[in-house]
Amino acid sequence: MDNAMIAVGLKRASDVVHERASEAVVAAEANNTAAAERAASEASRMAQVAHGVNGDGLESAETLLREVRDRVPEDAHDGLDTAINEVMKAKERLPTDLPENPDIPNRSDTGAPRSAPGGR
Fold it and tell me: Looking at the record, which segments are called Disordered (predicted)?
């Protein structure tokens, strides 16, 4: 489902990375190592395709994944290390010299998701 949402432009891959990292934190807090590993693996997979200009989502995802790594048993560290490395690679791919587009509202400015043209 995430891939379809990304493909049609309803979600950014970097946002999905952040969502999966958040899920990994929740699973780790519940001592559900398997679910934390699955969510981290999905975050890693999404980070491999993240190419949007939303570096904040990737930065937050990296922080969350590091937090999960600190909470899960050592045997889960390899998968989390992979996910963290993929997020770091995705951050390196982000363009750094793009000008701001005044016609596209920043989600953090409005506090709400972008709406379709015409407010729908």
Answer: 90-120
d(CA 43, CA 109): 26
Measure the CA–CA gap between 52 and 54, rounded to whole angstroms: 6
What pTM does this model have? Answer: 0.58
What length is written for the chain?
120
Q: Tell me how far apart the alpha carbons of residues 30 and 5 are, in angstroms, rounded to a whole number.
A: 28
Cα 120 to Cα 106: distance, rounded to the nearest angstrom: 17
pLDDT tens sequence across 58-90: 788 888 889 888 988 898 888 889 889 988 888
Q: Which residue has the tokens 């570096």?
A: 55
Domains of the chain, each with CATH number or no CATH? 2-93 (1.20.120)
